[in-house]
């Protein structure tokens, strides 16, 4: 009897991993296991940060210095090309800083998530756990690397004569939407990296092009105006870029204290939810094949 009970208890903890063609795992048990192992994801994130020296003073300084230097370079280029006047020089620089810090958060989450599955191959081969923890831990790492840039942005904001406004609190909405969107995209590119190992090499060029197409070096309304001036009433095409609504809403609230129109709020939510649902479905439906591919 004792041996039978032991066997029954053991079999209740056995997990059967079927081929991805069997469909998604049972979502209830999967998400419960994901939540129970959240500390594992946090420790995995902290390990990655220690490996990148971002828990040291100089490592954290570099997280700020790199996008700040890029903001200075882009400011010089934008000012020369557009012939920016002294009247809006401070707002242009503050806008560049806010946009670049925000974009680099997304970029770090995307590139970290893309390499998370292949980089965690030893974990996949030696222990069973919900693989979704890997890209989510990469997004967590990117978020904590983003926080020091916010601390540095506030003095820049104040030094250039921009007051702290209550509208800035609303920017948390676009931060949450960007986090959800980044998580979904990290799942997609993390899966693609398993099947196509050149994805990580291609991604930096893709991210750089995405930067130029997003309202970091220019204002959202200016981009729509120039597009419509060149091609007619096609300003709606800007919303096909998910970062247009997220970065546009963020900089409007953070830099200028302007509450964005409902189209930016709605587009940001739509893209974030779509990325999470589609990215999660794609990742979970393929994760049972990861060990074989690795």
UniProtKB/TrEMBL annotation:
It comes from Jiangella anatolica. Belongs to the ABC-2 integral membrane protein family. It is found in: Cell inner membrane. PANTHER family: INNER MEMBRANE TRANSPORT PERMEASE (PTHR30413), TRANSPORT PERMEASE PROTEIN (PTHR30413:SF8). This is ABC transporter permease. Keywords: Membrane, Transmembrane, Transmembrane helix, Transport. GO terms for biological process: lipopolysaccharide transport. It is a multi-pass membrane protein. It comes from the Bacteria. The chain crosses the membrane at residues 61-81, 93-118, 138-160, 172-196, 202-219, 239-259, 265-284. The keyword Ribonucleoprotein does not apply. GO terms for cellular component: plasma membrane.
């Amino acid at each position: 009897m004792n041996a039978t009970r032991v066997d029954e208890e053991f079999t209740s903890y056995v997990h059967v991993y079927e081929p991805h063609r069997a469909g998604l795992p049972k979502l209830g048990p999967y998400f419960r296991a994901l939540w129970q192992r959240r500390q594992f994801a946090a420790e995995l994130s902290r390990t990655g940060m220690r490996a990148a020296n971002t828990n040291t003073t100089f490592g954290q300084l570099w997280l700020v210095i790199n996008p700040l230097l890029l903001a200075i370079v882009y400011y010089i280029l934008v000012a020369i090309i557009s012939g920016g006047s002294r009247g809006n020089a401070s707002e242009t620089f503050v806008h560049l800083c806010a946009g670049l810090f925000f974009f680099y958060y997304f970029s770090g989450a995307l590139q970290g998530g893309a390499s998370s599955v292949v980089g965690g191959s030893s974990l996949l081969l030696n222990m069973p756990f919900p693989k979704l923890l890997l890209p989510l831990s990469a997004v967590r790492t990117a978020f904590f690397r983003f926080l020091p840039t916010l601390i540095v942005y506030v003095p820049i904001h104040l030094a250039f004569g921009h007051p702290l406004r209550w509208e800035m609190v609303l920017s948390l909405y676009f931060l949450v939407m960007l986090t959800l969107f980044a998580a979904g995209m990290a799942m997609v590119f993390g899966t693609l990296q398993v099947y196509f190992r050149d994805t990580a090499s291609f991604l930096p060029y893709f991210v750089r092009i995405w930067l130029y197409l997003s309202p970091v070096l220019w204002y959202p309304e200016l981009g729509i105006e120039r597009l419509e001036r060149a091609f007619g009433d096609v300003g709606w095409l800007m919303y096909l870029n998910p970062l247009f609504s997220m970065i546009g809403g963020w900089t409007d609230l953070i830099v200028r204290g302007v509450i964005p129109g409902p189209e930016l709020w709605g587009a940001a939510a739509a893209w974030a939810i779509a990325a999470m649902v589609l990215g999660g479905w794609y990742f979970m439906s393929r994760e049972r094949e990861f060990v074989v591919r690795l």
